[in-house]
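Supplementary material to the annual report.
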Amino acid sequence: MGITIAVLTLGGAGLVCALILVVADRFFAVHEDPRIETLTALLPGVNCGACGFGGCVEYARALLAVVGATPANLCPAGGAETAHAVAAMLGIEAGATDKKVALVLCGGDSARAPRRFLYNGVADCAAAHAVGGGDKLCRHGCLGYGSCARVCPAGAVEITAGQLALVHADLCIGCGACVKTCPRKLIRMIPAGRTIHVLCNSPEKGPAVKKACQVGCIGCTLCAKLAPEAIQMNGFLAAVDYARELDNQEVVDKCPTHCIVRR
Amino acid sequence: MTAYILIIVSAVLVNNFVLTRYLGICPFLGVSRNLPTAVGMGAAVIFVITCASAVTWGVQVALLNPLRLEYLQTIAFILVIATFVQFVEFVIKKTSPGLHRGMGIYLPLITTNCCVLAVAVLNIQLQYNLLQSVAFGFGASAGFALALVIFAGLREKIDRACPPESFRGTALALLTAGLLGLAFMGFAGLVKI
Amino acid sequence: MSASKPKLSPNVGVHPAYHKEATSAKPIEVMPLPPLLRVSMSQHLGKPALPVVKKGDTVLRGQVIGEAAGFVSAAVHAPTSGAVKDVAEAPTAGGIMALAVDIAPDGRDAWAPAVEENRRKRADLLARLRDDPAAARKEVVAAVADAGIAGMGGAGFPTHVKLSPPPDKPIETLIINGAECEPYLTADDRLMVERAAEIWQGALIIQAALGAKRVRVAVENNKPRAAAAMGAAVADSAGDCAVVMLETMYPQGAEKQQILAILGREVPSGGLPMDVGVVVENVGTALAVRDAVVNGRPLTERVTTVTGPCVAEPKNVLARLGTLYSDLVAFCGGFARPPCKIVSGGPMMGLAQSGLDVSTAKTTSGLVALPRELVGAFVSMPCISCGRCVEACPSGLMPCELSQMLEAEDYEAAAGCNVADCIECGCCAYVCPARRPLVQHMRRGKAWVAAQRRKP
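Predicted assembly:
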């Protein structure tokens, strides 16, 4: 007898509760596009913001708001794979998906680029840059206090023993957070898979560069002559035009300051 | 009136649910990483426990007592509380998306929180009437929110400081919670119940 | 008010060793023209001036070589006559690169004709300022702007901006700041001793331009000679004028702290002295204003204290703007022993230099060369929450908390705790037993707040 009452009571109560919830669900139902969840699952979920939206969910919302208005290839972290998956789901074109990686345009580690003074302050590049223009003798080179490494969501930036930032291209997801944070603006996004780089960002004339760094670009124009289609002189600074293919070992071998490297 | 104030004060300070009775430790440690979250969680807990006190009191008096089913108290209360929380979440989601973003995401966390159930059970054990139950529920949840907010503020500070490696994270959080509990022991004897 | 009894300070601060004895009794020495003057376009707070001369031009002393770029900016004048050797970027004392005009003096030191013209034009300005102040005020402000005067205490805020308060903020009190609370520096002290009457005349001109009722000259009680000299200058003036002797304390030369000490008024958070009806001007600025209005001369020189244990003959030097630090040091006998740290300005707020290739600016109150034993290399440690910085902060901030927030890059939290009210006096870092770079953290926080304000 007792058990019957108990079962009936609780069962009844459970039923009533369930009914309330069912009714409530109907009554207070909020229409939310179920595709948002599916689409978010397709994205890498790093929430790095490189797409220009506030995280992966927001990008998914934007993709669905007006299908086709937001390109499917905005996620650099996901690259081609994600873009194609997203495009296939929405039935739109994937668009160009060249993977980009960050490159630090400085090769002057502490052994080869001296410091002007002993900096004894906050270990942050922007802070160091604000003190007398930074402690590195070269006013354009990497300070190596690791601001870029701290903002990197993928942990792709290493501060080497020579106090120099180094982006590991295989780990880089191409979000560009480091580019924004560098106070000296010497990190650039380049197409992945490129091997030959001019690792200098100093626009100064040759003698000034030579004084500040052993591996700086002195503007000798030799590389621009050897590979005129892919390397341009930007004032006194050689710059690789990553829009063109460059696979010319000669420029690496002949660069007098070894500022051009294969990596 | 004094009786109600005493119930509230004793539940907030003297018999603080987190720091004296050690109930609801899971959300206390889980949702106290920063102050805004703690405030949101605190508000959600105050709302749920206060309302749940009234509802469970009703269930006990109207359903369990007449049918002599007191032994089903725990399971019945969990059922009612879970339904109630879910229902509230639906309503908030529909009526006020802003409030849902701020407080709603914590609601499911509370559903199976021992703190909520403890208040409902204690209400019956202490033989409170409806108003006293609500007052006790409010006091208990306000105490929980107070502890949570204080703890979140402390943890924010601790995160910014540089504790030794072996203390970092949960270790120091538990130590801090212990010290906070010691501090709350100072309220013992403030209200005699 | 009697000039003998120091007024007890309501401020909080620190009492560093002052070391002023090396130069406080030495008369100001005029430095002969160096072979090269490198005149920076960024000698003031605000936008750098725009150079209007080019390589190969010849300039005369007082001729405009850089025009003010906007309202909060100041013109720059040739400090002597000579040839422009180059217009190129050069480091400033703050370490940033700014355009600078290199002038090779021709030795004639001939004034530009505009100076004489200005002098004649303004000959009766003093009289008119007495008779019809409303009309003459604008002329004074224009004369100050023409002369390129910027606050000579160290911050370098363009003076004409300070002299043009908005009409809804009437100025009631003018404070002439002779506190010179920075250790080692004696430039203002000597200026007051030697040129009290001229400073006072400048003060009266500023008072008339602002329409202020009261004038107070603030001197700290470690400069009795300056106080006496200023007292004598003030004595025969009508109106509510007085010299106030302040208890010596750092940073009482900071304007907000000085207003509190003299008038008991607190400048509101985020506000300016004009919000409490006060303008504070440095004694050097007052002298420059007098020179501009009475003599028609723009700002082309200033007194700089070259001192510190490493300098062979510490001196107060009257040098042309643009004098290279290396020339200044050479004039003072060079270094008696190698310095470990050279600070432009006082040791508390000054900027450490990485070389002597920087030139003096309108703000260069001193050059202090410190030996290794006074610099002390240190490693900064985590905050131990001792609270000494909180006790020392004259702005009532919590530097320990703020620095930890900023270390964690939680800028919003720091802004919420009023990091923008920091005056960068360095008291917190001075007392910090963990040797934390507190001021640098504050600067980062302030820079972030400023960047947020600039955002639309």
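Chain C has a mean pLDDT of 91.
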